[in-house]
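DEPOSITED CHAIN:
***
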Amino acid sequence: MKKITTLVLAAMTVLMVSCGTTKEAAKPAVEEKPAYVFTPTEEGDMDLSTASSVDYRGLKFNEETGILSCKNIEFFQVPLGEYLDAGTVVKVHMTGKNNGKEGFRCWLTDDNQVTLADPLYLDCIGEGLPAGDFDISFELHASGTVANFFVKGPKYGTMIDNIEITKIVLNW
């Protein structure tokens, strides 16, 4: 019995030592992805990677294509990068694709999402925006100190159902 116990203990010791000294297979190096760097292609080109929403799951920016996808979210906003005074006219050019049925509307806001734009709600691109590619231009007039370009569902109580924004150009 002593011999069996000694043999079992010796075998366990060998197993424990060998388990602790086995070498892990070499793991391949993980290639680090370079950080996204925004490169404007024209004056007023907005960095879509800075867009934000309270519902981050429905707002995705693709660093490879530069496309901002918005699915089933109430709103998103893009910071202007500076404060604009009341009376400033902001020329807006947007391109993208409406993959949904609802569309959207746009305006200017301050840091607290208070609407400060005339027209108050730009509904001409909201309800009735046809499915498919869009290329729209319009003007908004700041009615107070503004900090953000704001995009929301086409009417009260609706969501931005499914749009892809390829470009937002703002000039003032």
Q: What stands out?
A: The two ends are 93 Å apart (CA to CA).
